[in-house]
Amino acid sequence: MTTLFDRTQLGELILPNRLVMAPMTRARASAGGLANGAMATYYAQRATAGLIVSEGVQPSLQGQSNPGTPGLHTDEQVTAWREVTGAVHANGGRIFAQLMHAGRVGHPEVAGLTPVAPSAVRLDAQLYTGPKGLLPAPVPRALSTAEVRDEVEVFANAARRAVQAGFNGIELHGAHGYFIQQFLSSNVNQRTDAYGGSVAGRIRFAVEVAEATAAAIGPERVGLRLSPGAGIWGVQEEDVLALYTALLRELAPLGLAYVHLGLTTDEDNLMSLRRTWPGTLIINPAHPQDTQPASLAVGEAWLRRGADLISYGRAFIANPDLVERLRQGLPLAEAEQDAYYQGDRRGYLTYSSYQH
C-alpha cells in the first residue's frame, strides 16, 4: 500500500516522499517585493518535504495582493530569490514558485495601481492595505481583449524568471477567488468576448496561461492549483463539476506536472475530477476555512482514493520537521495564529525541530 513516505517521480524530479508543503502567505518580503535571508532560512528548514510550493508570488506589480508579498517581475527579485532556492537545494529540497495574481483582490494603496479583473465587478469586502489598515475594495478595471492576452504573457514571463531564480518549477494559483478563478466564475466574469459567457469562454484564460507557461519553461515544470466551488472572495461558479471537467479535459494534453485540488467541493465531484485528470494529482485535505491542520490519517485516506501527493499548510508553519514528526508519530506543535502575517521572526523562525 502506498504511503506518504514513499518515493515518487514528479516530472524530472524524484521526490523522497509524497508530502507537499502547501503555499501560504507569510508577508515577510522586503521592500520592492524582494525575498530575503529570513525567507531563505524558513524554506530551507522545511526542505525535507517532498516538494515545497512557495507563498504566492506576484507575476507583476499589477497583480500584487497584500503588503509584504514577494514578486517575480524584476531582475532584483530574481537575484533575491536565488538565496532562497539555493538554501532549499543545499538542504536537499525542491521548490516551486506559486504565481499568484490578485486580480480584483488588490488595492491601489498596496500596489499603486487600480486592480484589474475580467469585469468591473467590485469585491464586497475590506482589504488589508498596510499602514492605512482595512479599506473597502475598489471597483476593478475591466481588461480589454488585447489586455487579457497581455496578462497571459505576464504569467509566462514570470515563469521564465522563476527558473532563472533557481525554482524547480511554478504553480499557477487558479484558486481561492484570485485572478484566474475570477475568469472561471459565473458572477465576476461578465464578459461577452471569447473569455466569458459559456464554459468554453470562462476556462479559456486558465488554459491559455497553462499553455503559455508550459511553452516557456516546459510542462513538467508547471502545476495548477484549483478550488472548485470554494466561494472565496465572492467568486461563484455555476455547475462546478461541468466547469472543472471541461477545464481538466482541455489541460490534459499539455502534460502538466500536476493539478492541486482542495476539499472545496463534495467528495463525489472530487472523485469525478480525479477520473478526468490523467496526470499527477495533489490533494490538500483541509478546507481553506479550517482552523486546524489536517491529519496524517486524512492525507493517507486521500492517497487510497487516488491522490498521488498530499499537501499540508498550517502543519508546516510550526513544524519545520513535519515529515519526520508524521513518520514517527510525534506530537505536532501549534502555530501562533496571530503571528501568521506579522512580518518579523516570531511565528516564522521561532519554531524548532522536535526535541526528544
TrEMBL record:
Keywords: Oxidoreductase. One of its GO terms (cellular component) is cytosol. GO terms for molecular function: FMN binding; oxidoreductase activity, acting on the CH-CH group of donors, NAD or NADP as acceptor. Gene3D superfamilies: Aldolase class I (3.20.20.70). Its cofactor is FMN. Residues 4-332 form the NADH:flavin oxidoreductase/NADH oxidase N-terminal domain. InterPro entries: Aldolase_TIM, OxRdtase_FMN_N, Oye-like. Belongs to the NADH:flavin oxidoreductase/NADH oxidase family. PANTHER family: NADH OXIDOREDUCTASE-RELATED, NADPH DEHYDROGENASE 2-RELATED. This is Alkene reductase. It comes from Deinococcus arboris.
